[in-house]
Structures are given as C-alpha cells and as structure tokens.
Amino acid sequence: MIIQPIIQRRKLLLLLTIVFVFLPRFGISQNTEIPEVLDAELSAYTYPYPVHYIHLKMENKACQMAYMDVAPTQNNSLKPTVVLLHGKNFMGAYWQQTIKYLSGLGYRVIVPDQIGFGKSSKPSLHYSFHQLACNTRQLLDTLGVNKAVIVGHSMGGMLATRFALMYPEVVIKLVLENPIGLEDYRMIVPYSTLDASYQRELKTTEESISNYFKTYFPEWLPEYEEWVKVPAAQTRSKDYATVALTSAQTYEMIYQQPVIYELEQLQMPTLLIIGQADRTVVGKAAIKDKAVLARAGNYPALGRKAVNQIRSSKLVGLPGVGHIPHLQAPEAFYKALTNFIK
C-alpha cells in the first residue's frame, strides 16, 4: 500500500530531472508565459537577461535602442567581447542559450535589438544597414568596447557585413550564420512598393507566422513555438500598424541594399556557418517563375560562392540543418563558433 506511491514519486522526480538537465541543450527558453497581446516594444515580454537602453536620434526622431550586456560567469580578460546580431523576424531573446554558453566560457556578450525590432523603438523612417551599423558602433562606444567578434544571423549577417565594411578596425573576427543577402533579391524577386508590402504585413496572423517559420526547420519542434507566439501577440495589439509598417520598411532595406558585391572587401578572418537544408529567400512568395524559384535560396551553393569571395574565410556546413543553426543544432553551432573565435 505504501510502496506504489513511493515508486511513482521517484519516477516523477526522475522525469523532472531529465527535463531540467536536457531542455537547455535544445535552446528552449525559460520564458513559458507569453502574453496574448504584446505592444510594439514587447513591454510585457521578459528577456532572459536584464535589458538596458541607449538614446539615439534618427531623422530627428528620439529613439531607444535596447540591448543585453552579459558579463562572463568566469573571469577571463583575455577573451574578446562577442556581439550577437539578430535576424529580421527575431529579437535578441532568441540568442538566450548562445549567450549562456559563451558567457560560461568567459566571454562578455552584447546583444542589441536594432531600432525597429524587439524592445527597441519602431519609428517610421528610411531604414538602412549603414544607419543600423552606426547605431551598433555607438552602442559599443558607449559600453567602452573597441574590439569585438561580430556574429550575425540571417538579416543580422547582412548587418554584420556592413558593420565590418564600415568599421574594420573594430572587428576581430566576423561570423555569418545563414546570412540572407548572399544573392541579390532584386534579380529574382519582383519589386513590391512600400504600400503593398505594408498591406501584406497588416494581414499577418499567428497561422501565417507559424507557416513561414516552419520553413526555417526541416522538423518543427515544440520549443520553437515561442518565436511564433511573440510576434503573433503583437498582431493582436493596437500598436500592430506601427510594427507592420516597420516590418515593411525593413523588408525594403533588405531588398534595396545588397552587400553581396562587397564581400571581397572584407579583410578580417570570417566564418560562414551554413545549415545545408536552408532554402530561405526574402520575398520568396512573390516569385512566380518556377525555374527561378528552383535555383533561388540554395544555401550550400551560396555558402561556397561567398567563401570564395571573402579573402580570409572558412565555411562550416551543417548537414540537415535549416535557417537557424543556433536553435536547431546548438551544439554543432557552438563547436564551429568557439573553434573559430578562441
């Protein structure tokens, strides 16, 4: 009569132990409560580390740029600062496990939300990678960082490239994780006016976000749901028109400001980490020519081409991995990253 409850309690304890030990390996956020409605600056959404702000002025508009600045958990002054730059459909919070891993190895990790994204201001203005790079440089100057490893994922890869071209003296090493912009989208995606892009963004739903995000991964797992739920909560906010306009404006930035033609100018050691199953194309839904669609977004080929353009570069291909290696295959991503920057 007494033995059975004891066995059941032991099984429960064993299950809980497994959950708490192994979930962090798979990049699962500790943020389990996501509000049904989130405003433009994600005020009610908790980031994994304290968020700070710097004040900027862009086109005579006062803006706040959010960032996380995470100190190393072990003292190692010889290791460089690492800056993590997010993709277009994300914010700094999705770097949570990468931050934890790098800070645990003794790296200081700085993770900004660019203006127009995450917890930062979302003004209506002409967005440019040059301006975002300038903002990032101002952030690093404010924090007293004059040298850093710059890591950019997706759109963050385009920004990281522009930053490295503008401020090569700051960049010790450059890491591009499945960067978009390894092809000129103007050559393959029909042009869309800002007004048309804005109207499309206004029609965004949780279902459409989920369907799009599922193209990032060969297999969809429950731990990816947070990155759908957060932007979906914004679509239910009275602020969504602001978020939608910013999204349309930053799409225009990506479309009109390629960096691919300047890759050969990069002088610093550069690593490309490319999930080989990725077929992301910005504006892919607008491509009607099946022949163009078939050859667009071929990341294995794009990665090889890019590494041949960049003078001092290395390519690490991750078989079976999609657009976001640091979420889908964190251990492989960490290995490639730390082998390169140590």
Automatic annotation (TrEMBL):
Gene Ontology CC annotation, any one: membrane
UniProtKB keywords: Oxidoreductase, Peroxidase
GO annotation terms (biological process): acylglycerol catabolic process
Protein's UniProt keywords contain S-adenosyl-L-methionine: no
InterPro entries cross-referenced by the UniProt entry: AB_hydrolase_1 (IPR000073), AB_hydrolase_fold (IPR029058), AB_hydrolase_sf (IPR050266), Epox_hydrolase-like (IPR000639)
Ranges where the AB hydrolase-1 domain occurs: 80-292
This enzyme's EC code(s): 1.11.1.10
Bilayer-crossing regions: none
Coiled-coil spans in chain: none
UniProt-recorded Gene Ontology molecular function terms: chloride peroxidase activity; monoacylglycerol lipase activity
Stored Pfam families: Abhydrolase_1
Protein name per Swiss-Prot or TrEMBL: Chloride peroxidase
Organism in which the protein naturally occurs: Adhaeribacter pallidiroseus
